[in-house]
Amino acid sequence: MSAAQAPRLDPATLSRARVAQTDGPSDEERLLAAEEARIGQWRQVWRRFRRSRLGMTGLAILVVLYGAVVFAEFLAPYHYTTSFTEYVHAPPQRLHLGGAGLGLRPYVYDLTRGYAAQGLLRVYSPDTAKPIAIHFLVPGEPYRLWGLIPARRHLFGSPDGPVALLGFDRMGRDLLSRTIYGARISMTIGLVGVVLSIVLGAVLGTVSGYYGGTIDHLIQRFIELLASFPSIPLWMALAAALPPEWSSVKVYFGITVILSVLGWGGLARQLRGIVLAYREQDFVMAARCAGASDWHIISRHLVPGCTSHILVIATLSVPGMILGETALSFLGLGIRAPMTSWGVLLEEAQHIRVLTQYPWLVLPAVPVLLAVLGFNFVGDALRDAADPHGR
Hints:
Shape: elongated
Helix content: 55-70%
Oligomer: single chain
Largest sheet: 3 strands, antiparallel
């Protein structure tokens, strides 16, 4: 058949042909679907998570903060109780590089103390005649890494004088060292508290959604009762009820339990909704018809189906725990001396005189903000990765 004799297609037919070619999945989409079907669920979640820039940024922030938790003794130049009485409320020392006859070694200048306002206010100025060279992996105060390994090496320091890149507090203690040690309390109290909240929320939420009826009503009304109280006053009342003779360790675990007991309601309600949808699914009905017990159905079918959701909720709940401990310690009802946390450090900076004369004492608020942002970024990215079609 010649070109002149070939049938001519009208524009509508050509349009339908083009739509038919583009409606189906492309070769790339088919290959991607086959690859996702071949790998496991958690590897799929990790691949989707890595595509989120905010998620990876938040993960990097958390890695740095928890690195400070694990290696606090090594990273901090001094112990959090070490005091330099001649540097009370001294400002941060400016870091210099090159000059002062020290080559490329970083250094700070020593501080000279004076008085102003008729001798009522200390003022400090750098003494350019006394540079303090900063050494790395320098021997310093002895410590036990993780409470087990005796060591003396610190990441940085100087044998020539004190180095305080974030300044000194009202007792002449290095603020950087106290901030690093404070991360150990503030960052771990969130994890421990979330673990307890997950146990309570997962068990009670699953039981409430699976059994329903009177059990469901009792659990939900109890959650509503807890939610009806304002958080801060309730935290304050329970924290104030802790015996004053308790040690710092007991107070730490007491605050953790308080935050956990008050924080499981949201997770329980969300899991209840998921379990209500799952319990009528075919796989649950098949297990029930096969004679499976309620415990088998809950532990082998319902809870694993909620694992990704539990992980996301747990990640998003940690910032609330950190802020809760910070708020209680800021109000003087949380962690007690000699232990330190970010809330304890901020409690010292709540007076207007401190904000106007010693503003560097507010710097511990920066890691609090970074921790909250890091957990929120990771939680949002995990939620999108675990449920990519639910956005």
